[in-house]
């Protein structure tokens, strides 16, 4: 027994499996990184049930899925697929039902198109099956390789800004404006104070070189928020249920939604319209994942100098299977989370990060109220710093005029003076945060790239798959127009 226990005590068994030293990390560091990733993305445990159950939506109450059923399915899918990602790929990517796609299912497919939730989830399952076939045949990998390196880097930068914007917006530091689209929030409220407290503490910890800065910042900020909320008789302005110690610590699981899907959408919407929806869901899922793998993979050190991700088929396969699992369990499509960058920012590098993160979802099948304590303001600092890390990690090369100084004009090796590269890269970077969508940013950038290359007489230099992708994105953007004028779509 002592001989068997020894490898567990000194970590050698896990070292052989995950190769911490080879990746420049440690078991302790990757464990903390896994916890960090979980805390930053744990909002989906509550947001997904709220969206799919139509909680608080006038006119739709009682028409959604059962809250506790979605909660159970969300935790199970996130746990199983994230653990699988860690064990199969040895990469620090985490997965969960995608925020955004769940809203498409609830408000567009169900509320607007009149589909039942099982029929909508059937389309999600089909979309995941299509992506899985593309992965197994190598087509998805070929598509990623067809994209110019500069645009891949622009995707990572855009995602970094998008993440930072999410942190600022969710915390209330930036809000919808009256005379302008966005403006600064009321900086005199307790939630904003807590958000800035978290930012200052986290930045100070990072400046001191403290590895667990993101996690400690989240925990300390949550503690401060809870104290303030308690002293203010729970009227400090935090979202309901957050910054509050729960009365009950346990909940019971509801497994009724597993396998609750059908393919009646083809009879309800028509074959063409159903296929169009599968195509639209496919594009969003496909390129969100591509952007996430590149965006998180760069600071994690996974990418080669050419911007390629070795053994990319492995994470792509897990991601495509997760989409199918999401449809089969009524959680909407599960996908690789950009918040995985939080664990990478905390120093995580191996699949152990994903394993730890996945395992942490399981207790919340029954202990969900605990994670609800964490207010959005507590995660703002982590998202902002992760955004910074994703941008700063892509600054490459020195200014020829001043050795040792990075040139802003060639950020990440992108020549912004070159119209065919610079303009598409800028569109990718701008549209992600401005349109609140990774897919939109990639789509507009790709279309611009192919148009400019054709106009400059360089059409033959564009990979055939880039033409096909750009055409697909053009159709994706035109679907609403076509649906308004063609009854059969």
Task: Summarize the structure in short.
The protein is mainly alpha-helical and 489 residues long. The protein has helices at 2-10, 12-18, 27-41, 44-52, 67-89, 101-112, 117-136, 139-146, 149-171, 190-207, 213-231, 265-269, 271-300, 313-328, 340-345, 351-361, 368-371, 376-392, 419-435, 438-455, 464-485, and strands at residues 95-97, 174-176, 182-184, 334-336.
What are the salient characteristics of this protein?
two-stranded antiparallel sheet, two-stranded antiparallel ribbon, single chain, mainly alpha, 21 helices, 489 residues
Distance separating the two termini: 66 Å
The total domain count is 1
Q: Radius of gyration over alpha carbons?
A: 22 Å
Largest sheet: 2 strands, antiparallel
The ordered H/E elements are HHHHHEHHHHEEHHHHHEHHHHHHH
Q: Say how many strands there are.
A: 4
Instruction: Give the overall shape.
Output: globular
Q: Which stretches are low in confidence, meaning pLDDT under 50 for 5 or more residues running? A: 1-10, 397-409
